[in-house]
Every structure is written in structure tokens, then in C-alpha cells.
Design brief:
By secondary structure, the chain is an all-alpha fold. It is 75% helix and 0% strand.
Amino acid sequence: MAKAATKGGGGGPDAGWSDERSAAGKRNPWLIVMVISLATFMEVLDTAIANVSLSHIAGTLAISPDEATWVLTSYLVANAVVVPISGWLSDVLGRKRFYMMSVLLFTVASLACGLSGSLAMLILARIVQGLGGGGLATSEQSFLADTFPPSKRGMAFAAYGVVVIVAPVVGPSLGGYITDNISWHWIFLINVPVGILSLILVHFLVQEPPALERDRKKLLKKGLNVDYVGFALVAVGLGCLEVTLDRGQRDDWFGSGFILTMAIIAAVALTLLVVWELARKDPIVNLRLLGNRNFGICFVMMLAVGTILFGSTQIIPQMLQEVFGYTATDAGLALTTGGLAALVAMPFTGLLIGKVQTRILLGGAFLVQALALGHLSGLTADVSFGHIAMARVFQAVALPFLFVPINAQAYVGLDPKSFNQASALLNVARNLGGSVGISAAQAVIEQREQFHQSRIVESLNPLDPNYVQGLGQIGQQLGGAAPGDASTSQLGVLYQQVTQQAAMLSYIDVYHVLMIAVFCIVPLAIFLRPVTGQKGGH
């Protein structure tokens, strides 16, 4: 790293900052962004790419669609278990060593997924893949926070954020194309060469700073007191919570004894986790960080971003296929326009962070996001592809102004030694927010669709002239059928219109709920800690 960037000077935002924990060594720090982005794209893409291939997987392995969903659930559960403890593992094993182990585990598991010939083998490989993938983001964000001074950290997170935001957008389209034209096995096999390249580049270009190695040796010299109870509570609590959120809607929520049991175990385990970890001097998950006002607010905001990003990425293509009759490819293209908008906006985000207070950026971005969700709630069942694409652009363009400032702001005022643990908690927030967003959206859609359908059917009265006139118009469109057949056909078309309209109204309800939730987040930006001139600059 250049000497000029080694120390912050005066009372600026870089005051007190040192490059002794930098992962770049004497190399250009932007190489670090490029190197870690490979594994980031691979892992984030994999969380979205498998969704569109479930029916093909079910057909090939001769399993039911419900059994196929465990391909997703197993990955999410394993990921949820390892993310909270990844900061501790990074401290104990060494950041670079732990990162390379995670990439290797993810790559080998991807190969096993692609070669799987049975459901049991695929689920086992997905569990291992989730364990490897869960350790990546924590180390990557810690790399960036230590390698770049606060004045440049925003631009670094902006470059890194491109893959985090764009990968879930292109995932469904890429997964659909590979599945339709090659084989579902290749949605996993494509990770193998990327993982190998990532390992080679990390080995030669990423450094393990002496300061981190000294900290690790001090930690081990004191005697490694492993928090087995904390680990067990994390694994059980977050694992059961992920199962509850991912499968709750399919299994009728608390009407299912299995889901009810999972929910109770999750609630008890997570409650005990909070009590246990706060009482320990060396917790496996440093929950005390949430007591820092600035970091605590960023944690809540990241929950909201996860809900918006993953929730909308899930329900918008679902709406386009269910209500508008789009193919998977066309639905993916509608999302891709938003991904391009986010890509264009990302560099501006990094530039503005150094010039505008992040709390102003975040407050404005959440406000734009709420207005964009309000705009989506105004869609009708006959809007054009262009209108939908622009609505998605309106929403997606604000996402970089949420993700990047939160990641840059979260480390302000924290001890650099806690960066690994802070990164782990931020990724817990993003993943948990995504699970909550997807689960809540699906629950609202199903319940409100039934409600709207019953209300619409109530208004279909044969004595109503409008009803009779509508059936007549449908008969004219069908053209020349026999009276009896026409009546049956007319009612069939009418029922199709009713279900389509009810589905559209249920999606509108989801956008309304998300809009209100985001509006509630906006005032939190006022309480964030100012960055400029902050002592320590961290």
C-alpha cells in the first residue's frame, strides 16, 4: 500500500488509522477487491441460482417437489449456522487461512453437488457447501475494512457491493438458461473453476498481516476456551429458525406440529444464547456489539436491506410468471434491468460516501426505496414489460445507497480487533432479513389471495347487469361456441380472470406492507454516528 495511505493525518476521517492490518501488503489494495469478488459472486449467485431448477432436479432424481425444496433449505440452514461464528473462527484460525478453507470447502462441495445422483447425496453436499459459503462474506468484509482507510472504504465497499447486489438478480436467469439448455448439474459445476482460480489468487495476492497473526497468537497463548454451549445454541437456534421460515408456508405454519416444534426450539435456544453470550468474557458471538448505538442501528438497517433485496427478488419474477404469464427468461430479464441500474449507481455511492454524511445517504435511500415500493403497489394486471422494468429500476437504483453506506458506517467507532465479529453479525442480519422477507411475503400472498378471491366472488351475482354483460363479452371473444359449451367456457375464463386479479391484489398487499416497514426505518438514520473527523476513523 502506498505510504501516503499508511496513516491518517490531522483530524480528518482517516485520523489514527494504520495499514498494519491491511491484507494488501505492498500491493495495490484494489487487487484485494478484485480477488475476493470472485468467491463472493460464486457464493451469492448460488443462493439464487438453484431456485429455478428445482422442478428439473425433482424429475431427474425421481423425488417430489416438496422433497426437492430441501435442496434450498439444507443450504440455508448450514449457512445460518456458520455465519455467526465465522468471525470467531477467523480470529482463531487466521483470517486468510479460514477464508481459503471456506473457498475450498465450497468448491469441493459444489463438485459433489454437480455429481450427485441421489437426493441424500445432494442434500449432504449442499450442507457442506452452505458451511463453506457462510464463512466467505465475513472474511471479505473484514479484509476491506482493514485494507482501506475510512475515507476510501465507501468506494471499496461499492466495488465489492456490485457482486452482492447483481448476483441475486442474474442468478435466476442464468440458472434457468443453464437448466433448460445444458443440465441442472452445471449450475453447481460452474463453481469449480471459479473456486480454483479464487484459491490461487488469494494464496499469492492476499496477505495475512503480522498484526492479525500477533493477535491470534495472543488469543491462543491465553488458552483457547471454546464456547461449546454458545456454538450449540447458535446452531440449534438459527438452524431451527431457518427451517421455520423456509418451510413454514409450505407446511401450514403452526398448524404443523413439525413447524411448531422448530419454532419453539428456535425461540428457546436464541433466548438462552443472548443470556449466555452476554455473560461470557470470550463469547463465540459478540452480541455486545449490538449495544453500540451506531452498530446496532446498522444491524437493524441491514435486516431491512436483506428483506427488501431477497424478498423483492423472489416475489417480482413470481408475480410476473403467475399474473402476467411471463416465461422464466422474460421474468429474469425484467429483474436484470434493475441489476443494471444498481450497477450504474454503485460507483456514485462510493464517491458520495466521502463527501456526504452516510446518515443522509441512508435516510434518503430508504425514503426512495419506500416510494419505489409504493409505485410497485400501483401496478395493474395489464401493464407492459417496459413499465414493469422501469418500476424495478426505480427500486433497484436505491439499493447501492443502502448496502454500501451501511457497511461503511457499521465499523465507525469499533475497535479494529472486533471487525471480524462485526462482519459476522452484519451478514447474519442480511441473511436473516432475506429469510424473513421471503417467508413473510409468501405468507401474505397466500392469505391475501384467498381473501381477495372470496371478496371478488361475492360480487359475481347473476342478477347484476354488469355480470351478465361481462359474460356476454367473454362469449363474443370465444366466438361461436354452442350455448352450453359457451356457458362452460365463459365461466372458465371468468374464473381465470378472478384468480389473476386476486393474485395481483395479493402482490400489491405485499408491496404495501414492505413500503410501511421501510418508512418506519427512515428515522433511524438520524441517530447514526457522524463519520467526518471521527477520532479513530474506524
